[in-house]
Amino acid sequence: MRKNGMGSHQSCKSGKTEWLTPKELMSQLPVFDLDPCSPIDRPWDTAHYHYTIEDNGLTQNWFGRVFCNPPYDDCATWLKKLSDHNNGIALIFARTETITFFQYVWNKASAILFIEGRIYFCHVSGEKAKANSGAPSVLVAYGSECAEALQQCSVKGKFIRLNP
Questions:
Q1: I need a surface site. Which of 26, 29, 91, 106 has the fewest CB within 10 A?
Q2: What is the distance between the alpha carbons of residues 153 and 5, in angstroms, rounded to a whole number?
């Protein structure tokens, strides 16, 4: 049985576990070399190279600028690997009070961008979900180049520089 799919978002209401980052959001971000938690089937690419659940991105070598939209039920493991890699941007819920946020965002990230409004994720078919994500989202940059890229991107929200 498949656990939450790579790049997925758990939703009790929909009963689905795999959701795509909207193409419109991806088009406002820098180009990425690797997405280590990509859905197997996707109508658009989020990076030049993708690892899926079949590859187990956590066990693979990460390279270049990484985009990580992790399974939200195991966000901490993915954020730890991304913070160790120190060259990437993660898309997660803005749960600023959690242990995971304190451990891997407040204390390790280079910058964050709180996204204005709520994201409407997409089905693996590419169709936009009927309801928004149900929580605020944040982009988390690791490494100075990714912090700069996040500051220069056109995503509407509030940019905050954190750790150098």
A1: 106
A2: 28
Q: Say what the pLDDT of residue 131 is.
A: 67
- Chunk the chain into consecutive blocks of 10 residues (it has 164) and report each block's average pLDDT, rounded to whole numbers: 32 54 93 94 93 95 97 91 98 94 97 94 77 82 98 97 88
CB atoms inside a 10 Å sphere around CB 93 = 18
C-beta neighbour count of 98 within 10 angstroms: 15
Question: DSSP string covering 137-155, please?
Answer: EEEEEESHHHHHHHHHS--
Number of H-type helices and E-type strands within the chain: 4, 7
Which amino acid, one-letter code, is at 37?
C
Task: Kindly state the tokens that stand for 90.
Answer: 């993660």
The answer to whether the beta carbons of residues 22 and 119 sit under 8 Å apart is yes
Which pLDDT score, from 0 to 100, does residue 10 have? Answer: 34
Among 73, 94, 90, CA closest to 137: 94
Tokens of residue 1, six digits? 């049985």
Give the tokens for residue 41. 């089937």
Rounded to a whole number of angstroms, the distance between the first and last alpha carbons of the chain is 41
d(CA 60, CA 12): 30
Question: What is the chain's Cα-based Rg?
Answer: 14
